[in-house]
Design a protein that fits this description.
325 residues; mainly alpha; ABC transporter involved in vitamin B12 uptake, BtuC; 13 helices; globular; cell membrane
């Protein structure tokens, strides 16, 4: 039933993304844009332009949803998310360094730098959070992520302020948007998405064992260190690739995973694929909402998800604190 509801919601979100915006599209224009390539009306062209944007938002939402689920499973932290752990900011720093010092400008160049930045930042945050008594506890990981994100954001600002050409290229990307989607960018993104999703689906049963504790998981034959490394790399791959293509969009992993966990329980065999669906739905509907709120312009989707996600994060953190007491 949940799967059917998600699929229906996804279809409705796709239709809304194609029809709604600063220029609403009528039904016959939607049909012309989708099925009648010989029709060259303004409405049909608007629909064709929005198709790539809609596909891109679906893919990015799915990637961020699965990335959040994997990071929460690996760290055993209910509020882990690429944006909260500073991974997005690390990817942003490497991209802005590439723009400023290496003169990069293409999606292929962005994606490798973003992946390197995301991976290094994830390792750094986990290393800092693991220090001291108790190891990598959820609160220590969040604090390490917040501190790292603040420091890296300062470095990003220090690099772009004296370089106006970098600021012009970087400022729109930094907010997080799917509006500049092209089929070329989607083609570049798909291999990373498929590898990350495949690894997430394959590791789900072992991650269920990991949730019982390292000792129990080892007794069940799980190599906990190898599993954490592989699952974390998949999460970083999905997050880094998305950040390179669309900018640092936050809170999708947190929102989608928590919604699914509340409905279906803790089994990652269901959470990971359903987080992909719910992440695609949340990001796509947030993009539509940004277009409607900012009409005749648009509000970037990263701003919309931040407005939605920040209160949810506070609520989740408060509930987690109450349970721990």
């Amino acid at each position: 039933m949940v799967l059917v509801i998600c699929i229906v919601s996804l279809v409705l979100c796709v239709i809304a993304s194609l029809v709604l915006g600063s220029r609403p599209v009528r039904f016959h224009e939607l049909i012309d844009g989708l099925f009648h390539q010989d029709v060259d009306s303004y409405g049909a062209n608007v629909v064709r332009k929005r198709i790539s944007r809609t596909v891109f938002s679906l893919f990015c939402g799915a990637a961020l949803g699965v990335s959040g689920a994997l990071m929460q499973a690996v760290t055993r932290n209910p509020i882990a998310d690429p944006s909260i752990l500073g991974v997005n900011t690390g990817a942003s720093l490497f991209v802005v360094c590439g723009i400023a010092f290496l003169n990069i400008s293409t999606a292929n160049q962005y994606i490798w730098l973003a992946l390197a930045g995301a991976a290094i930042t994830a390792l750094f945050v986990f290393g800092i959070g693991s220090m001291g008594r108790g190891g990598a506890t959820p609160i220590k990981l969040v604090l390490a992520g917040a501190a790292t994100s603040a420091a890296l954001s300062s470095l990003v600002t220090a690099i772009i302020i004296p370089r106006s050409y970098v600021m012009d290229q970087f400022r729109f990307w930094q907010v997080g948007s799917v509006g500049s989607a092209t089929w070329s960018a989607i083609g570049t993104f798909i291999p990373f998405l498929l590898v990350g999703l495949l690894v997430g689906f394959i590791t789900a049963p072992a991650l269920n064992a990991l949730a019982l504790g390292d000792d129990v998981a080892t007794g069940l034959g799980v190599r906990t260190g190898t599993l954490r490394l592989i699952a974390a790399l998949a999460g970083v791959l999905l997050c880094g690739a998305t950040t390179a293509m669309a900018g640092p969009i936050g809170f999708i992993g947190l929102l989608s995973t928590h919604v699914i966990r509340l409905i279906l329980g803790p089994d990652l065999r269901f959470i990971i694929p359903m987080s992909a669906l719910s992440g695609a739905i949340i990001l796509t509907i947030s993009d539509v909402g940004g277009r409607l709120i900012g009409s005749p312009g648009e509000l970037e989707v990263g701003v919309v998800t931040a407005f939605i996600g920040a209160p949810i994060l506070i609520i989740v953190a408060m509930r987690s604190k109450v349970r721990s007491l």
